[in-house]
């Protein structure tokens, strides 16, 4: 974008005097303006001038702007006007002076604090009401994120930028190959370029909820493509990893709302909001006196408390104990790939007939690429055991990039209640990323390996291994 660097200050756009630039994004600049005859301040969003050369965009802009202007809800920023003046395509909206949710979260994080859960529940209730209303009007947002959520001084929340992503082409790739949307908040189906539904907005809303609770988004990576891959395949980390005061009920709500399958999520935003409020209320008695003071250790490697509620059935505990004995006998000095093959054999699980040659003939690919570019053998494995076997064979042939792909597929197929049994997969994932010199994802995988053990005593050696690896990467 050719930055206007405040060059519109003092000029007139239609009936509006431009006063100052208050925001800058990849596709637009936002100014505070004033309608003199009505004696009120407004927000003026001026889109990229180059868009004016695209007749298809201009037609879509007018169509979407008319739809957005029909939205009337106390928690949605009202659009007053839209127009084209010269090479300036702009929209005039209600001016909210309190800043964005993104700014609020950044302030909390820099001061080492968490947002209190009751305040989060209040924000979520307002956002959910606005989103459900928009959905009832057949309007999707498509780019929900904290930067598109405004706050006023009295604690009211306002959703803005409805329809902007659709005006700019939705989720399709542009000719330069950039993806319209924000990967950290995009649903798995949006990352795959599929048609969006209201559930896609609900996923983005839940990512925002996750960030309000923890101060972090559930998935992060060095590149946008790697982040898209995580959104599609990786399970979300438990909230307990970030906050000690979060109980299982709250975490369960987030796990369901961040399901990879749209049909497994909550049917509406208000249903999500009610479930979260109920979980917060039931956990209020166990909240520490200062729940939102963020200790440094709480942002590094917080282990969840032991869970005796049935997440780790006795039969799996016995199986894990047997596996641990096998691991101890074989010894840490033996190649971990060979050990994992032995574990798969001992468990009696079916091993697919996949040869090293069948995979080795595939083209080496970037680990960030989408599943459509994966070798067929990796795409077709549907159980952790099958994907693990493919991983072992790829490691034996030193094809580490493809091995990372196979492990991503494996961990995505592990149910939450079986994470302790498969915790070693996450440590293996850390090892592969470390081999590929991807320290960010390696650390993340080792931390998730610790979390997946659910603090089970018999898996202490796995935790020790992961903690040592994290130290080695610093």
Question: Which CATH top level class of the largest domain fits?
Answer: Mainly Alpha
Computed Rg: 25 Å
Low-confidence stretches: 1-5, 170-179, 286-319, 329-376
Please count the helical segments.
18
Strand fraction:
5-15%
Which strand order spans the largest sheet, edge to edge or round the barrel?
1-2-3-4-6-5
Kindly give the count of domains. Answer: 3
What do you see in this structure?
The protein is an alpha+beta fold and 474 residues long. The chain folds into 3 domains: 12-94, Phosphorylase Kinase, domain 1 (2-Layer Sandwich); 101-299, Transferase(Phosphotransferase), domain 1 (Orthogonal Bundle); 314-473, Serine Threonine Protein Phosphatase 5, Tetratricopeptide repeat (Alpha Horseshoe). It is 44% helix and 10% strand. It contains 18 helices and 8 strands. The chain has helices spanning 55-69, 101-110, 117-136, 164-167, 188-191, 198-214, 224-233, 248-257, 269-283, 314-330, 336-346, 356-360, 376-380, 384-396, 400-412, 423-435, 439-452, 460-473, and strands at residues 12-13, 16-24, 28-35, 40-47, 79-85, 88-94, 149-151, 157-159. A 6-stranded antiparallel beta sheet has the order 1-2-3-4-6-5, covered by helices on one side. A two-stranded antiparallel sheet has the order 7-8. Strand 7 (149-151) and strand 8 form a beta hairpin. The longest helix is centred in the first third of the chain and has 20 residues, at 117-136. The two termini are 37 Å apart. Mean pLDDT is 77; it is low at 1-5, 170-179, 286-319 and 329-376.
């Amino acid at each position: 974008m050719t930055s206007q660097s405040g060059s519109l200050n003092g000029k007139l756009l239609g009936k509006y005097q431009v006063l100052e630039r208050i925001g800058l994004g990849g596709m637009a600049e936002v100014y505070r303006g004033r309608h003199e005859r009505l004696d009120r301040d407004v927000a003026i969003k001026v889109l990229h001038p180059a868009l004016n050369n695209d007749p298809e965009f201009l037609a879509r802009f007018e169509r979407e702007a008319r739809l957005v202007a029909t939205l009337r809800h106390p928690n949605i920023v009202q659009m007053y006007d839209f127009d084209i003046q010269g090479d300036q395509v702009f929209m005039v909206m209600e001016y909210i002076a309190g800043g964005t949710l993104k700014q609020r979260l950044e302030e909390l994080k820099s001061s080492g604090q968490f947002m209190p859960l009751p305040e989060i529940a209040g924000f979520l209730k307002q956002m959910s009401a606005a989103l459900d209303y928009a959905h009832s009007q057949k309007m999707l947002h498509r780019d929900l994120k904290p930067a598109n959520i405004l706050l006023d001084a009295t604690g009211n929340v306002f959703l803005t930028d409805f329809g902007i992503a659709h005006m700019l082409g939705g989720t399709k790739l542009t000719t330069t190959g950039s993806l319209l949307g924000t990967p950290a908040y995009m649903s798995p189906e949006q990352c795959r370029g599929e048609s969006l539904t209201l559930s896609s907005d609900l996923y983005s809303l839940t990512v925002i909820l996750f960030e309000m609770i923890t101060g972090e988004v559930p998935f992060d990576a060095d590149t946008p493509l790697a982040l898209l891959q995580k959104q599609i395949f990786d399970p979300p980390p438990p909230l307990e990893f970030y906050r000690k005061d979060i109980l299982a009920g709250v975490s369960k709500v987030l796990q369901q709302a961040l399901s990879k399958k749209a049909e497994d999520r909550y049917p509406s935003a208000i249903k999500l909001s009610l479930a979260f409020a109920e979980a917060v209320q039931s956990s209020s008695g166990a909240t520490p006196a200062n729940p939102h003071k963020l200790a440094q250790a709480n942002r590094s490697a917080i282990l969840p408390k032991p869970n005796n509620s049935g997440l780790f059935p006795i039969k799996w505990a016995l199986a894990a104990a047997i596996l641990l004995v096998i691991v101890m006998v074989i010894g840490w000095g033996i190649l971990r790939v060979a050990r994992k093959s032995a574990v798969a054999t001992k468990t009696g699980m079916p091993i697919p007939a996949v040869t090293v040659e069948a995979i080795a003939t595939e083209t080496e690919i970037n680990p960030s690429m989408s599943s459509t570019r994966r070798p067929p053998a990796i795409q077709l494995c549907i159980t952790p055991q099958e994907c693990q076997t493919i991983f072992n064979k790829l490691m034996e042939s030193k094809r580490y990039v493809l091995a990372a792909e196979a492990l991503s597929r494996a961990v995505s197929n592990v149910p939450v209640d079986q994470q302790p049994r498969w915790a070693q997969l996450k440590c293996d994932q850390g090892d592969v990323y470390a081999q590929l010199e991807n320290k960010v994802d390696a650390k993340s995988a080792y931390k998730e390996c610790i979390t997946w053990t659910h603090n089970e005593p018999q898996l202490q050696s796995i935790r020790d291994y992961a903690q040592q690896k994290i130290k080695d990467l610093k």
